[in-house]
Amino acid sequence: MYNETESSNSEYETTLNRLSGQIEDLFNKIHYYQALVAEKDIQIKKLIRENQNLMAKVQKLTFHSNPSGEPGQKSYNPSLPPSSEQFSTPPIPPPNYKEKSESSFSISEDPRVNKRVCPNCGAMGFAIREVEDKSKILSYTPRRIYAKKKVCTKCRYEW
Q1: Res 146: pLDDT
Q2: How far is CA 116 from CA 53, 62, 124, 150, in A?
Q3: Residue 128, SS3 per DSSP
């Protein structure tokens, strides 16, 4: 009986020692990753300052390239990176849902790509579920067949 208690105590001690070692290893890993995060934070702050300095230089150079100060007449300077104003597209008006057809497929230039798109939020693919519309019965025989409607799982819009 004494041997059984002694052996169970030694098993507990070995298990305890093994788990203590694992905990110590995990704490070492935590400290290592905290040091990495701190290093990355310093690097991010350095890059933010550098980005701000470069943006200030770009603004200064664009002001010097257009000394008249007229915002509509910018001269082209090949040494400067293109501004976002040159490539901006006109704002897209909000969709008018009454003009859209009942089709849930959008037509793209590539005929192989037909994705379901939510007319409300623009969600695509697996975010659109097709469920039975129990308010529209198509057939009673041989069993009830219901019309289908699409439901967006992101915004809960139904069409």
Answers
A1: 94
A2: 45, 44, 6, 9
A3: strand
Residues of the chain where predicted confidence (pLDDT) is lower than 50: 72-73, 84, 97-108, 111-112
Distance CA 18, CA 127 (A): 47
What tokens appear for 67 in the block?
């000394």
Q: What percent of the chain has pLDDT over 90?
A: 40
The first and second tokens of residue 41, run together, are 């934070």
Q: Measure the CA–CA gap between 93 and 75, rounded to whole angstroms.
A: 30
Tell me, what amino acid is at 118?
C
Distance between CA atoms of 81 and 73, rounded to whole angstroms? 17
Question: Which pLDDT belongs to residue 153?
Answer: 93
Rounded to 5°, angle at Cα 142 from 138 and 146: 25
